[in-house]
Every structure is written in C-alpha cells, then in structure tokens.
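Recall from the previous chapter that SMILES is a line notation for molecules. Here it describes zinc ion.
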Amino acid sequence: MKAVMVVKDYNRETGELGEVACVDVPMPEIVNEDDVLIKVAYASICGSDPNVLKGLFPDRAPCPIGHELSGTIVMLGPKAEKQGWKVGDRVTGNFYVSCGVCDYCREGMGQFCPNAVGKVGTQAQYIVWSSAQLYKLPDSVDLLTGTLAEPFNIALHAIEVADIKLGARLAISGAGGIGLMLVQLARICGASQITVIEPEERKRNLALELGADYVIDPINDDVLAKTAEITKGLGFNAVLEASGNSKAAETALQIAAKKGHVVYFSMYKTDYNLPVNLYKYCYHNEIRIQGMFLGQSSFARAVAMLPRVNLKPIIDKIYSLDDCKQAYADQMSGKYAKLVFDCS
Ligand SMILES: [Zn+2]
Ligand SMILES: [Zn+2]
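With both inputs in hand, we obtain:
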C-alpha cells in the first residue's frame, strides 16, 4: 500500500529541511485483540506535521507521518468486535493513546500519561489503530469533514480552557485551520466580538466569511492601535494564540484586557522563552496565562459537535498521496488553512 513517509531528517548542520515521499510499504496487520484495520478516506496535514521536517522532534527518518484521519473499518480483532465495532463503520480517532491506569489518567489528565504513545502514520491507504482510539462519525458528518475531528478537538478544548463568558471580547491570533475553527466555536460560545489577527489576506477574508467581526494584519496594521479602536481601549477578555509565532505570542499579552485570559496552545520552538513583565501583566493587570497540551478528555464532545459547524470552507486543497511533496511545500508556505490527502 502507499504511505507518506519522512525519508530524510532535517540537517542540523546546514539547516536543510527534511523530506517526505510517497512510498510502497507492507499492509499493517491486526496484532492485538482490540486492533482495527481502517481504510483511510482522508488524512489532513496538521500545522505541526512540517515541524518533523524542521528538526523540532528527534531525528526519526524513515518514519510514517500524519495523525488526523477519517476512514472506514475493514477488519477488526475479536475484542473490538465484542465492543460493537463493525466492518463499514465510519470513524475518526485520537492518535494520542494514554494508558488509562496511571495516576494522571485516573485523574482525567491523560495528556500527561508517562506511558502515552502517539500513533502516527495516517497519511497512508490503511492504518491499524486500537478501538480505544476510535470515534464513530455522526451520520450527518461526511468523511471529508471527519478528518478534521482531531484539530477541531484542540480548538474546542482551547475554548474551554479560555473560560469565555457570554459577551466576551475575543481575539484569535492566527487563522490557520484551528484559528478558523475557533471563530465558529467562539460564536457558539457567545463572544460579543471576534477579532482575528493574521498576516495572509486570503485567510483574513476567510475568517470574516466564517463569522469574525474584525481582522487585523499584524504586518501592515498597528495591532495595539487597532485593538484599542475595536475594544474601546479595554483590550480582549480572551486571547487565543493559535499561530505558534513568537512575535504573536508576545503581542497576545499586550492586547489582553485587565483580568484577561491568554491561552498558549501552539507548538513553539523548544528554546523560545516568552518575556513577561510580571509587574505589568500579572500583578497590575491580573492577566491569567494559560497553557494547554492536547485535549485528551474532550474528543467525544468534539466529534458530537461536528454537525454544528461548517468546516468545509477551511479546506483549501485536496491531494493524492503521490503529490505529498507538493502538499508539504504548500503547507510550509503558510498561505493555506487546511490541506488534506485523499487516501482512497
Ligand atoms: Zn493535529
Ligand atoms: Zn496513563
């Protein structure tokens, strides 16, 4: 079967990017009793996938890539069958598998599970996942939308940890796939105004179409002046930093209202330190700085919410697995919100 693989790691001496290629690999096999063989329909590229090619993870080539998917069950182990899963079930799933029995898991914090495994490799024709990772797609959600369940869960959980009150003034920094999902969820959560900060004009326009009230171009606009104008000098009650850009991370603090919540949940460079003036932001302005790593307890609710949002406009292009080099080049251009592989 065909699979996208990282075939060359980032060169830490020359700075040359790593590479992906579509290669022929053996079909994955059912090994454990709760294993399920999935025929992948669509696998979207995560904003974090190119980080493998930029050296943000330990070297790993050759290795599979991709953790977002939708697909159909084609074969299943006896335990999965007993649990009620069937051939033909349309599913999506969570790549991050926690053990369920450690102290963190028992306290509902599976994201910190020391035994957790990230099962990547969805950008392929087939994958074997455990039934514990799977969620049935609601009947009204098609497979193309279904592949976005994992990033949508991150957006949903970011909204939860931001603790947004009805009528809040909200800023979303970055209009990638997750930023644009946040726009729709912010409307559902009753934000009174939604401002999106994004350098790409295409993505700013898409944010407006999807329900943002204001957009700011951080390259050509004065972000602080625009914020003052939009919020009548008060700042934003919540700022969701969805760009992963260090400059934007610093701006997020500057545009927060007194008592505002700033949520950081993007993958920043591992050696980046955010400068925070504690007197100004934490003492004087009582700002809450909130981190977030995955959304291990909200996935089922995210899948249940899929029929309430329209994620199709976020998908810019669909590629065959053979076109993976182009797909990754496009992803790294920063121009697009969400790019997807048709794995059929
Ligand atoms: Zn993802
Ligand atoms: Zn655990």
